[in-house]
Design goal:
Length: 347
């Protein structure tokens, strides 16, 4: 893969753990699978053509898929972010409750803020500083990826720092870049549907640059959530417009401009991460209510789909390595990591 972005992909057998209606996404929990994925299957990259529904296939690089790692003793493990050396996410305990973690090699570290009852991590930068959300003890609503406070976790020191948007009812953090700039979402006081979760959009997105908060709202949207940010300050996220029908689309925010990047023909799409090459990852639902992963760069989309199954791509690093979740042929959830293969020179 060149530094220009994405030009296609080869992917292993993957299936999504989440199925969403146009209005909301319901989360399924289907056990644990620890097997390794070593099979490569080619799919095409498609480019959206302005003012038309035609999709144009282009060439593709190669990925090698393997298990991202299951947290020891966990019922399920969800990798959400990746840097060159580590993976961050959350795991579900057999008796209930979710906890954020950082994986380094085969080692796992729980990243649970003091006094919290549930937590998750969704972003991690190159220095091992991760961002996520947690529910404090006594919170009225808590659960899978719910939170009423954002926080950072420093892998080097074990320190956690709470993040709350000034005056907000609830705050969650998702993405973080190498400079420590954090993005996420917050809910206004008295807003229904808070605390937040990954699939219930926040009232507003935000950017936190060393304690200086900026509110972000996709024009005309009822809800906006920022999930990723790169070193250039480009933000990837999702917005929702509630009208006669519900619109849920992915977007990017760059230099004060918002751009809709809904996958062509999709019912809805969620952008989950962005790297310094400007490559965005996420997933979408097609007209047949099937969910697939996607990559986006410079107007081109790569559909991540194998054997007619579905995929959730949650994170990408600057090497274009991916993490996410899939459901194997037995219907069991498992985490994956995708590594870019270097092609041999062609004679």
């Amino acid at each position: 893969m060149s530094d220009s972005g994405i030009s296609g992909a080869k992917y292993g057998a993957l299936t999504l753990v989440c199925i969403r209606s146009v209005a909301r996404l319901s989360k399924l929990t289907k056990g644990l699978a620890g097997e390794r994925l070593k099979r490569k299957v080619k799919i095409g990259l498609v480019a959206a053509v302005a003012m038309a529904s035609t999709l144009v296939a282009v060439s593709s690089p190669d990925y090698f898929f393997t298990a991202a790692g299951n947290y020891p003793g966990a019922a399920q493990t969800f990798p959400n972010a990746i840097n060159p050396e580590q993976i961050a996410g959350y795991y579900l305990q057999p008796g209930g409750g979710t906890f954020g973690y950082v994986q380094t090699g085969r080692s796992f570290t729980t990243a649970q803020p003091s006094g919290s009852v549930d937590s998750y991590l969704f972003g991690i930068n190159g220095a091992g500083l991760a961002a996520g959300g947690y529910c404090a003890s006594g919170a009225s609503v808590c659960g899978n990826l719910y939170g009423n406070h954002g926080y950072t976790y420093d892998y080097r020191t074990g320190a956690t720092t709470t993040i709350d948007y000034p005056g907000a009812a609830t705050t969650v953090a998702y993405g973080i870049n190498h400079a420590g700039v954090i993005v996420g979402g917050f809910c206004d006081q008295g807003t229904n549907g808070c605390p937040l979760d990954l699939f219930l959009g926040s009232s507003h997105a935000f950017m936190d640059d060393n304690g200086v908060f900026t509110q972000l709202d996709f024009p005309g949207a009822n809800e906006t959530t920022a999930f990723g940010v790169n070193n250039a300050g480009t933000v990837a996220g999702t917005y929702e417009i509630n009208g006669t029908t519900t619109t849920v689309h992915a977007f990017i925010y760059k230099k004060g401009q918002y751009t809709d990047i809904n996958y062509p023909g999709a019912n809805w799409s969620e952008a989950q991460g962005i790297n310094d090459r400007g490559v965005v990852v996420g997933y979408y639902q097609d007209a047949n209510l099937v969910v697939y992963g996607f990559m986006y760069s410079r107007g081109q989309f790569a559909q991540i789909s194998v054997f007619g199954n579905s995929t959730a791509v949650s994170g990408i690093n600057d090497r274009n390595e991916l993490v996410g979740t899939w459901t194997n042929p037995k219907g069991m959830n498992a985490p994956f990591k995708a590594i870019v293969l270097i092609r041999a020179p062609q004679n």
